[in-house]
């Protein structure tokens, strides 16, 4: 069986705002198959002006709080970049990329389905690292 990659329709460049970008990232996250015990907080980080584009940087910070430990022992961040090209028409949709804090690999939501295991691995690695230090 073919695995269906969930994505959302992204706004046109001319309609983009920092707030709408944040809302669309939240909408994308809602399509991810992640257990409800995971909680996250997302935020806008910065706007970056380049020669060929504007880039808007966001972060979603994930944790697994429990009744016994309401403050998670470690968190995992996912960084998003929304790109508005200066060479494409303003009716073109924005481009969206994301990467995990522990990785240089940049992914596109329409090409790769997010996996909960990636968050688990980051947190487990941080906890193991703290125990060895």
UniProtKB/TrEMBL annotation:
Tell me which InterPro entries the record gives.
Answer: AKAP, AKAP_28
Cellular component per GO, a single term: cAMP-dependent protein kinase complex
Any Pfam family the entry gives: AKAP28
Molecular-function GO terms, alphabetical: protein kinase A regulatory subunit binding
Q: What is this protein called?
A: AKA14 protein
Species in which this protein is naturally found: Elachura formosa (spotted wren-babbler)
Taxonomically, what lineage is the organism?
Eukaryota, Metazoa, Chordata, Craniata, Vertebrata
């Amino acid at each position: 069986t073919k695995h269906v990659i969930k994505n959302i329709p992204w706004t046109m460049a001319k309609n983009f705002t920092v707030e709408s970008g944040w809302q669309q990232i939240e909408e994308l996250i809602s399509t991810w198959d992640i257990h409800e015990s995971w909680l996250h907080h997302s935020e806008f980080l910065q706007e970056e002006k380049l020669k060929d584009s504007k880039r808007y940087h966001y972060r979603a910070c994930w944790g697994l709080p429990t009744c016994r430990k309401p403050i998670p022992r470690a968190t995992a961040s996912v960084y998003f970049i929304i790109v508005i090209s200066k060479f494409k028409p303003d009716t073109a949709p924005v481009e969206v990329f994301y990467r995990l804090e522990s990785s240089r690999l940049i992914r596109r939501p329409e090409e790769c389905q997010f996996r909960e295991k990636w968050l688990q691995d980051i947190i487990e690695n941080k906890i193991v690292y703290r125990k060895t230090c």
